[in-house]
Amino acid sequence: DVTQTAGSGFTVPEVTRGLAVGDLNHDGKIDLVISNNNGPVRVLINQSNSPRTWISIELEGKTDNRSGIGARVGIFRKGEKPQWRRLHSDGSYLSASELRVHFGLGDAVAIEKVEVHWPTGVKEEWESIDINQRIRLVQGTGIKIE
For 37-46, what is each residue's pLDDT tens digit? Predict the structure, then answer.
């Protein structure tokens, strides 16, 4: 329980209706925007001092939808199971989150590859991707896989 150290934004009693998540200040830490019933919107900026690594991936569809919504994105690291995320913006009442997939990588120092399964079934991979950054992967620029 980190309630006492999480900051005052988590101790205010409010009737919350919506939650949108994303990296608002582009520092690799997920921030929150909370809408309240008959109350103010709260923006909670993650100011933790965690030294953990991360990667945030935006997709650009060419033959699929422009935002890549519905695509599955996987990251592969040496000696680890792949991590998978689906690109979506939904999740909470009347809210839309950032159109990126975010991966917390813990102590990882590298990614072997990123794999995207586009909604139409086309699969691509990208290698030599640096960590601790926001990137955009454009459909048709990766290596096609079967």
Answer: 988 899 999 9
pLDDT, position 118: 97
Q: Cβ(104)–Cβ(85) under 8 Å? A: no
Within 8 A by CB and 6+ apart from 47, the residues are: 29
SS3 track for the chain? CCHHHCCHHHCCCCCEEEEEEECCCCCCCCEEEEEECCCCCEEECCCCCCCCEEEEEEEECCCCCCCCCCCEEEEECCCCCCEEEECCCCCCCCCCCCCCEEEEEECCCCCCEEEEECCCCCEEEEECCCCCCEEEEECCCCEEEC
The residue written with tokens 């917390």 in the block is: 104
Give the Cα separation of 146 and 143 in Å (integer).
10
Find where tokens 């109350």 sit.
Answer: 39
Mean pLDDT, rounded, of the chain? 92
Closest alpha carbon to 138 in 120, 126, 121: 126
Stated pTM of the model: 0.88
Q: What does the pLDDT look like over 78-119, one tens digit per residue?
A: 999 999 999 998 888 889 999 999 999 999 899 999 999 999
Q: Could you tell me if 84 and 72 are in contact, meaning their C-beta atoms sit under 8 angstroms apart?
A: yes
